[in-house]
Amino acid sequence: MKAEYEDNKKKLPENSVIASKLSKVPDLKKYMKKVMPFAEHRKQMFAEFGESVFNETSAFSERDVLNENIAYLMSTLDLEGLDIEFSDAAEERIQDETCPGEPFIVFRVDPS
């Protein structure tokens, strides 16, 4: 999207243009059902945050923020434990759903 934005005189192109370009990327073929909702979400974020939405990484360590607030999260959510893990260690379904700035949460119940 960043290249299209720059080629379009610093304006985001229409969704049809984005869809056409992204459908030609071989690595995205199996994700096409999710690509356009993701692109639309990025367009909405662009309206609020500007060009920073094109960054591929977060401006801060999301893991550090969660770790610094682990006691609060456990207390507020009434949890006995909380594991914070990188998405690349997770199953494929979780990796497919995760993107910068939007952590994926998995709740589990361990046998007692």
TrEMBL record:
<dbReference type="GO" id="GO:0005524">
    <property type="term" value="F:ATP binding"/>
</dbReference>
<dbReference type="InterPro" id="IPR055416">
    <property type="entry name" value="RBD_LARS1"/>
</dbReference>
<dbReference type="InterPro" id="IPR004493">
    <property type="entry name" value="Leu-tRNA-synth_Ia_arc/euk"/>
</dbReference>
<dbReference type="GO" id="GO:0004823">
    <property type="term" value="F:leucine-tRNA ligase activity"/>
</dbReference>
<protein>
    <recommendedName>
        <fullName>Leucine--tRNA ligase RagD-binding domain-containing protein</fullName>
    </recommendedName>
</protein>
<comment type="similarity">
    <text>Belongs to the class-I aminoacyl-tRNA synthetase family.</text>
</comment>
<dbReference type="GO" id="GO:0006429">
    <property type="term" value="P:leucyl-tRNA aminoacylation"/>
</dbReference>
<feature type="domain" description="Leucine--tRNA ligase RagD-binding">
    <location>
        <begin position="1"/>
        <end position="57"/>
    </location>
</feature>
<dbReference type="Pfam" id="PF24810">
    <property type="entry name" value="RBD_LARS1"/>
</dbReference>
